[in-house]
Design a protein that fits this description.
Helix content: 10-25%
Radius of gyration: 15 Å
Structural class: alpha+beta
Length: 95
């Protein structure tokens, strides 16, 4: 089903299901990263970055960097029910 979005209205954010492995060059240690994705609804212009965790500080910092990348913030940020982004699930007003 095709959806219509007004430019600048919505930014859809979530972590991708798949993780990426990063190898430290000095030690050879392999660490998994979480992939944060932010996509503007009207244009599908996308910002992607890897973070160590899905914790609240990483979640907020990823948003800040995404807003800087896009050159501003949309009217609404729409997230999936990510634990660090939604403290109480509600159909009408998630908090």
């Amino acid at each position: 089903m095709r959806q219509h979005h007004v430019a600048g209205e919505r930014l859809f954010v979530d972590y991708a299901g798949a993780t990426l492995d990063v190898v430290a060059l000095q030690t050879g240690e392999i660490r998994s990263t979480q992939v944060f994705v932010a996509t503007l609804g009207a244009s599908s212009y996308t910002y992607v970055e890897a973070t160590w965790t899905q914790s609240l500080p990483d979640w907020i910092a990823s948003h800040v960097r995404a807003f800087a990348f896009f050159g501003g913030a949309p009217a609404q940020v729409v997230s999936d029910n990510l634990k660090s982004g939604v403290t109480k699930a509600c159909f009408y007003e998630p908090t």
